[in-house]
Specification:
4 strands, 21% strand, globular, alpha+beta, four-stranded antiparallel sheet
Length: 122
């Protein structure tokens, strides 16, 4: 799962992106930018961007945008059972890094790492 959020930071136009893949293949994704939503694949109903982006959003930092961001993150937490670290909630955005595309293998000179999480008994 990849989440990029810039709804309330006030730097540039508001945006939000969610994409989910399994075994290196994208299952679904959506991106909100420039007042529009673009999507690929069947987004689960609880994450449907139409629930969150019903009209042209207010400027970054407004209460409506903050509520939208919180609702999106709560929906993601509910869908995947994940939570933001307390630091991210109280102090803002964590450090970011650019990831390689999961729809293509690494190109010459690209470095990468693989992280795997497994739940359940061994």
């Amino acid at each position: 799962m990849v989440v990029w959020g810039g709804l309330r930071d006030g730097h540039g136009n508001p945006f939000f992106h969610l994409s989910v893949a399994k075994a290196g293949a994208e299952l679904y994704a959506f991106t909100y930018a420039d007042g529009e939503v673009r999507r690929t694949g069947p987004v689960p109903p609880d994450l449907d961007p139409d629930r969150f982006f019903t009209s042209q959003e207010e400027p970054a930092g407004t209460e409506a945008v903050i509520r939208t961001e919180r609702a999106l993150l709560e929906a993601i937490a509910g869908e995947f059972g994940v939570h933001l670290p307390r630091h991210a909630i109280t102090w803002g955005r964590l450090h970011t890094f650019t990831t390689r595309s999961w729809t293509r293998p690494p190109q010459d000179g690209e470095t990468f790492s693989v992280i795997r999480f497994e739940w359940g008994s061994n």
